[in-house]
Every structure is written in C-alpha cells, then in structure tokens.
Amino acid sequence: MTRSTPALDLSPLSVQDLLCTSALSPADIERIFATARTLKAARSQHTDVLRHKRLAMIFEKDSLRTRFTFDVGVQDLGGSAVFMDHRDARLGSRESVKDMAKNLERWVHGIVARTYKHKALEELAQHAAIPVINGLSDFVHPCQALSDFFTLTEKWGSLRGRTLCYVGDGNNTCHSLIHTAARLGVDIRVCSPEGYEPNSRVVNEAMRTALETGGEVTILNDPDQAADGADAVYTDVWASMGQEDEIEERNGIFAAYQVDAELMARCKPGALFMHCLPAHRGAEVTQEVMDGPHSVVFDIAENRLHVQKAVMALLMR
Ligand code: CP
Ligand code: NVA
Description:
Layout: H1 26-41, E1 54-59, H2 65-76, E2 80-85, H3 97-107, E3 110-114, H4 118-127, E4 132-134, H5 142-156, E5 163-167, H6 172-184, E6 187-191, H7 200-213, E7 216-220, H8 223-227, E8 232-235, H9 247-253, H10 261-265, E9 272-275, H11 287-290, H12 297-315
Parallel strand pairs: 1-2, 1-3, 3-4, 5-6, 5-8, 6-7, 8-9
Bound molecules: phosphoric acid mono(formamide)ester and norvaline.
Residues 136, 171-173, 236-237, 240-241, 276 line the site of norvaline.
C-alpha cells in the first residue's frame, strides 16, 4: 500500500443523512459518483479521511453485502465499525429510538441502520447529531440504487437516453431505483403483477422530478412490453425480508415475471442483467441469465463498497 492519499473534494452534500435518494439533488449524486470513482481507482493507496472515526452498524435484518461493505469500507478509510445485531429486538423496543440516538452520538461519528420501519430511521436521524445512513428499510434501499446507477455509468458512460426495466415486486429496491432514475434523467419502466406495483406516492413524485430531468417513469403489468428495447433489466426477490410467510403465495403470483433468456431477448442486444442480491436462482431469475455474459450482479456488489465509502467520506466528516 502506498502512502499517497487520493485528492478528494469533500465539500458537504446538500443533506446530512442518507435516508432516501429522493432527498439527494442530481449534483449530490454526481458528487457521490465522482468520489466513488476516485476511491475505487485509489483502492491500493492509503486513505485516512475517516481516521479515528467510528461507525455504529445497527441491523434488524440479515445482510451479507451491506454489512461487509460498510465494515470493510470504513476500515479502508482509516476508521472502524461496531456491529450491533438487533434481529431479536426491533429499534425502539428496549429504549426509545430517541434515547438510542442520544447515546450513540456521544460515542460514534455515524450510524448505518437496516430496519423494518423507515420511520425508525427518520427518528434516529432526527435525534442524532451525527449522520444516519439507511442500509435498507421496508420502504427504500438508497445505497443499493446508488451502486446500481454508479455501475451503469461505468458500463455505459452517459446514462442519458437509456432505459432500465425493473421486473418484479414494487418493493424497497424498486422505490430507490425509481427515485434515483428520475433524478438522473434515466427512463425507468417498472413491471409488476397487479396489486404489487410500487407505492403511488413514489411514482408520482418521480414522474414530477423526471419532467425536470428529462427522464420518464412508466408503470406496466406486462413484462414483454416492459422489456421491449430496454438497455438493462433489473429484478429482486419476490418476497422481501419480513414477508417470509407470503413466499408460497407470491411464487405463484410472480411466476410469469421471471427474468429468463426469452425476456432478455426482447431487450436491446447486449442488454445488462442487474440484481441487488441475494438472488433466488430459478425463481425471479434463471441460472442462465444470472450467470450470463451480460450479468453485472457482482460488479454491482463490488461497487457497494466504493459507493458507500464515498457516502461515508462525504457525510462523516
Ligand atoms: N443487496 C443487499 O443489500 O444485500 P445484503 O442484504 O446482503 O446486505
Ligand atoms: N427487497 C429485498 C432486498 C434485499 C437486499 C429485501 O428487502 O429483502
């Protein structure tokens, strides 16, 4: 490891927390991407922008990617993380979220939390004088969507004029993709079974934002129509964490929404396949597509590290 530190522009973002990408301006997103690019290119260089900084990690749900990438990421930047496995007791059950925030702010410099209720994250952020980063809530998954679009900038250069097709449940991942696509001026088509469409407030807000950025948000129920001529197809599990008792019912309802080679063939030649992971091979995506030449799922997983390092470097100063 060399000792030269990469040159980073760490002037503040327009937000103090990262709860939802709908709070970010297009300029904030560009700053996060530029910082992530620099940090990624300089991974072998010594970087100590978070020297002596501590990150609290509070997770109500399982995680591989988010947990590893925040922990490794803060260490890469010279800091350290303390993990609190909160699966058996939800935030606010032992003491109020406010009191938790008031304690944590005395010990650490930032919090990443993975929660069921999005409101718990908002409360943490409201009461803690340190940045709070959303590591997934039932409502949104902002770090995921930032890493998804960062990966697309690496693959495509400009995102302008590109169409992302999301097939599946209108869930947390989907909401953050819609919020972020609208801010970046990317066309997004979301295709879900009836009754499983994304939150209408998310869609309406994104449609208004897209009018200003030149993007387009389209909600459909027919996967063939949604994939037609798309540049990338994205899917996620049919039952998210917390919906385990609905798996069987959902497997039936979503069966026609599997991403397979036939659906990919409706897209532009070379269209990318995306998934936040973990994937259920043989359910929402076939083995063939998941392991196919245009699958970028592990590039996205890698980029969680670089993008979240950028988010921490910009927020935890
Ligand atoms: N995509 C994602 O957030 O993965 P984990 O649930 O493993 O953190
Ligand atoms: N929608 C999924 C994403 C997991 C990263 C879930 O919430 O379980």
